Amino acid sequence: MSSTDLFKGKRTAIVVGINTYEDPSIPQLSGSENDAQELFNLLTSQKGGFERNEKNLLRGEDATQRKIIERISEIFRKDEKHEVALFYFSGHGFLDKKDDLYLSTYDIDKNDPYIGGIRIDDLRRQIYSSENKQNAILVLDCCFSGTATKDTKGDTEIKNVRPYLESNIGNSADKEDYGKGEGEGKFTITSSAIDKVSWEVKDCTHQENNQPHVHGAFTYYLLQGLEGGAADVNSGIITLGSLQQYVDTKMSEEKKQISYTHASQATNINKILIALSITKYKDNIENLVNEINQYLDIPESSFPDIKYVIAGAKKLKDLKNINPTNQSIKTINERILSQLELYKQGVINWCISLPDDVVFKIEDNRTTRRGFIEDFRNQAASLQGDTLAGIDVEWKGFLISIGNEVRNNNIYTDKNDTKLGTLLTNLSVSYKFYNSSKGGNK
Fold first, then answer.
1. Domain boundaries of the chain, sorted by first residue
2. Which CATH architecture has domain 3-276?
3. What is the pLDDT of residues 47-88, one digit of tens each?
């Protein structure tokens, strides 16, 4: 089985990390290039399903303004379809004298970030307005220094950057029609909204790299989430929603940073697939197959319990959604259809055995036994594996009730039998689908 079954479209990530800058007066970082390398490795592994193009990983002196913009243009300015297109940056951020935020490229002029830097509002607009990108995501792990707007004396850092983030990221985007469909959207997630800086964590160890090393705190938890911390406990699926929640929870526990998220026209963030916990994913598929087979495990030619057939059909639908190439699907589907046919014929034979003058009352309508059999035959003929998985409550209740009669071999020879009368009354309540077969409403 392959995790690529779930990754249905093109997935590309531009990943940037800078520790040391061309301008030696810019404070050196220790974890940004680790952040970038490990995130790129993880996203482009089987877990993430992103394409691996080394040109999209820019670290240190390679991360100049020109090279970064070239990659942005290649991915976000062209109309190639993407399931997910992501831009990630780990490094410094600066404000200019107009309070505009800039990402600090390797060759930035910190005194005038317009020279060499990348203005975040311009970047956000470019990413959010990109064509044919089902999901476009901007992730920033950087502190926003205020050195460009302060004198050299006293405090040179911003204590609350949230207003600057809101003005540079969450402004006119809210009014623009960027995302439309289910599980779509344009997103910005930043590491710091309230504290002075985005802080680093020393002596990190995790699955990707077990040697102690430095990471930005935000990216460390991002990596931990992608490695399985944010995975659904059953399916192993990691969505943008579960990843965001995991990182936010971990960051709030540290009480040093509060991340900031902006979404534009987003719909169901928990439908946006980011990565997989492969072990949990494979275990879930194996458990699904075993569970379905247990539902369908009856002696050959026995009359099936329809509630288990329905349960098996629902689980089969889940299996098709997460692992459509699974080799068990064909066999399981054949078993469901076989048991469904046994059920249909068993019910029809039971109806035939009833007294000729039995009258079924379905809500305000009455029909004879023969009419009922004909209508049931027509309705049941439409039942297949996929439709069985989406069956409504009334239809399901009727099928289970009448199936119990067949399985228990309940025989009625007198139309006045009180047990039969009770049964027909109960069936009339649950058989509301019947009206739709006659052109009425449920």
1. 3-276, 280-437
2. 3-Layer(aba) Sandwich (3.40)
3. 999 999 999 999 999 999 999 999 999 999 998 999 999 999
